[in-house]
Amino acid sequence: MPSFKDVYAVLPVSDHAAAVAWYEQWLGRRPDTEPMEGVAEWRITGNAGIQVAHDPETAGKSTVVLVVEDIEETVGDLAEQGVECGPIQDFGFVKLTEIVDPAGNKVTFVWENPSPE
């Protein structure tokens, strides 16, 4: 088995500049790196990140799932950044909400209940 070092969720977009501005808004910072034209990367946690890549042919067809410590706090933090989430869905063992980037890619935030009933 290969020895993995990093994991990036790739979100293809048609308007790279608009997507970068949108991700900067809710992440609260510029990309951590822009390794080549049309690609921007943010480290989200540990060795995991989001990569926004200019690829109009596949834009808007991806989803990334981010597990969070507190779903209500996440929704509140996003609202403060001017990013509106969908309703929080409560399934007992998990709660989730999502946002959609300008290309149509979904970013789903999930809170896992440590003691589901």
TrEMBL record:
Domain of life: Bacteria
Annotated keywords: Dioxygenase, Oxidoreductase
Signal peptide start and end residues: none
SUPFAM superfamilies: Glyoxalase/Bleomycin resistance protein/Dihydroxybiphenyl dioxygenase (SSF54593)
Cited Pfam families: Glyoxalase
InterPro entries xrefs: Glyas_Bleomycin-R_OHBP_Dase, Glyas_Fos-R_dOase_dom, VOC_core
Sequence ranges assigned to domain VOC in this UniProt record: 5-112
Keyword Acetylation part of the UniProt annotation: no
Entry protein name: Glyoxalase/bleomycin resistance protein/dioxygenase
